[in-house]
């Protein structure tokens, strides 16, 4: 059944280009109708397009897959704008009115226009966040209607390279799709992740991406500072590669064994010779891997904390720090942030505040929050409607009924798939537990066998050969194949010593008897 009304959005990430289509419900929740993704590491770096042709190909593939799932054509999409060059700068525009004048909306708009005309080199203003207006000696957020002879507008301009949007526009033009609107990715992420209390009380939202880390500081429901740091979780992977490890293998090591920080107690207990390995293909000393990851994580957090301090709101974040993005899944990441920032209130947002429904389950690992935010920010129908196609009321009702049945079927399949995955995970856990128990039993039997052999060696030394052979028999009864050669060797050694000792005893006895007989004859 074809969808006729939906919103479509695209996120141009450094690892994936992801697309989503869905509907916004009356209660503010979102119904996801389609989802698609394509790898983008070979065409997007630090959130910015550097290979137009490959980006166009991936973009076309994602949108075509959305259309296939929707069974409808897409006319336009909302697209997120972010990346390394995006940052905030402060600007003020003042106007002397000469005499007491009531501030009008037109005057406020003229101040905003003057702010947007500020000259920038190789940059453009992507968005503007009004901070406040100084009216006389007062600071106001709503100055319209107030009488004064002086007004000053204070603005936070979000800027980025002028090629940022132009490259996106060119890729969409080549792909044959329109752009409904450019949406600033850090802002829609905040709308999806932060609750009203956090924005009002003051918080720092840290989006830990693959190539970049975005820091957004909020206070009194206003964005106060924005910066994109050109460091992310992929830098950790590249650092591990410096140990002569392939990038794919380095990524697996990071995912399996990575920790954001190592406590002093853990460091003391750690075996200096312990090694980490994945699938037996490669290994790295545990202490080396821990040091590599902790060093890079510390560098990223230091840069984050520096940006928070630059905002001048570092001591006003009553709601603390909220972490999201793929990098937030690194174990002990919140401990690492507490250690550097001394802020106790740390929350990890692996999913957003917006309820998501539908037959398509999105990953709840912090990587989908921006995409959901883009969909929630969209307003216009993105479906390409054929004006000549007429749908009567009865056909529409039948289509809605089929759509409802399809949704139920999708939900049922999703539930069954989740159940199947849960069963597989449970079986895998049981298998791992069984293997662990078998290893422990084998080790226990091996220890017992070694104990018998050690006792046999001791008894042999004391020339208690019979008892020593009994210990060897006990060791042999354990039937441990890898110890059989050692058991045979021990048995042969004991028997050889026993034989030699027996000959020597007889010889000694004979000599003593001859001496005794000789003494008797002399007498």
Structural class: alpha/beta
Mean of pLDDT: 90
Strand content: 15-25%
- Main sheet, how many strands, which sense, barrel? 6 strands, mixed
> How are strands sequenced across the largest beta sheet?
11-6-1-2-3-19
Outline the low-pLDDT stretches. 390-394
Give the helix tally. 14
Number of strands: 19
Distance between the termini: 127 Å
- Molecular shape: elongated
Instruction: From the alpha carbons, calculate the radius of gyration and give it in angstroms.
Output: 36 Å
Q: Helicity, in percent?
A: 40-55%
Subunit structure: Self-interacts. Interacts with FtsZ.
Protein name: Cell division protein FtsA
Function: Cell division protein that is involved in the assembly of the Z ring. May serve as a membrane anchor for the Z ring.
Family: Belongs to the FtsA/MreB family.
Give a verbal description of the structure.
There is one protein chain. The protein has helices at residues 52-70, 105-116, 162-175, 185-193, 196-201, 233-241, 247-257, 264-269, 286-310, 333-341, 369-377, 393-461, 465-477, 484-522; strands spanning 7-12, 16-24, 30-39, 44-45, 48-49, 76-81, 87-102, 123-135, 138-140, 147-161, 178-184, 203-208, 213-219, 222-229, 275-278, 282-285, 321-324, 346-348, 356-357. It has 523 residues and is an alpha/beta fold. It has a six-stranded mixed beta sheet with strand order 11-6-1-2-3-19, sandwiched between helices. Strands 14-13-12-17-18 form a five-stranded mixed beta sheet, with helices on both faces. β13 and β14 form a beta hairpin. The relative contact order is 0.10.
